[in-house]
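Minutes, project check-in
Item: structure for the 302-residue chain
Input as provided by the requester:
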Amino acid sequence: MPAPTLVQDPTAKDRRPRLPRRTRPGAVRHPDAGLARAVRRNLTAHGFLIGAVLCFAFFSWYPIVRESTVWNDPAFGQAWRNTLWFTVLALVLGFAVPFLTALVINEFRHGQGYLRLLVYLPVMLPPTASVLLFKYLYDPGYGMFNEILAVFGLPAQQWLQDPDTAMLSVVVASTWMNMGGATLIYLAALQSVPGELYEAAELDGAGLLRKVWHVTIPQTRLVLLLMLLMQVIATMQVFIEPFLLTGGAGPEGSTTTVVYLIYQYAFNFNNYGAAAALGLLLLVLLAGFSAVYTRLSRSADD
C-alpha cells in the first residue's frame, strides 16, 4: 500500500512571524523624513502664503511704521513702561492669588461647589459694573477701603488720584474681576494630581509647604506655564480698567497703557496711521507669546 502523500493547501498562508516593517534589518527610518515629506507636500501653499505676507508687510506695514510719529511721542515709552509694569503686578497678584485660592478650596471636603460659584461670580458680572464698584470703593471720601484704614488709625489714601498707587489700584480691581476662571482651571489641575503622591510625601514627613513645592507644583507645572503665558497676553491688552477707573491716562500719565494710547491716536487725534503702527507693534509682540502658547498647548495634548 503506497504511503499517503500530504497535499499542501494552496490557500494556506505562511504563518511565520514577520518583523514589523519599521524593525526590519536595514529599514532604518531617518527621524526627519516625516518633516521633510510634510514640507514638500505643503511647499506650494507655504510659498503663496509667505509671498502674500511679505508683499503685505513691505507695501502696507513698513510704510505705516516708517512714516509714523509714534517713535518720537513721549507717551510712547511711558505707555510701554506702564503696560509692562501692569503686567508684572498682574503676574504677582493675578497669577499667585488664583493659585493660592485653588489650593485652599481643594482642601475642603464639603461645599466646594458653593466656593467655586462664589469665586467665579465676579467673572459673570459685566466688566463695567465691576469697575464702577471698585471706583466707589476707592473713593477718597466715603470709600470702604479708606473706612477700613480709619478703623486701624491709618490715614486715608488717594487710591486713584496718586500716581504711586493708581496702577496698583487698577491691578487689584482687575485681579478681582478676572481671577475666577483661572482659579477653576487651577482647581481642576489640582484634583487631577494622584493622591498617592501626597500620601508618600506625608510618610516622608513633608508638611503643607513641602507638599506644595515638591508634589503640587511639579505635577501642575505645564498648566501653570500655560496660564502664565495667557496672563501675559491678556494683561498686555488692558484697557477697560484704567479707562473707567482713572480716565485712561491717570495722574501724571501713570496708567496710560499701549491700548489706551492706540485709542487716543485713533479717536482723539484722528491719527489712524499712528494707531495702526502702534497696533502692529503690539501685534508682533503678542504673536510671539501666542506662538509659545500654541507650542506648549500641543505638548500638553501629546
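Outcome recorded: The longest helix spans residues 74-106.
No further action items on this chain.
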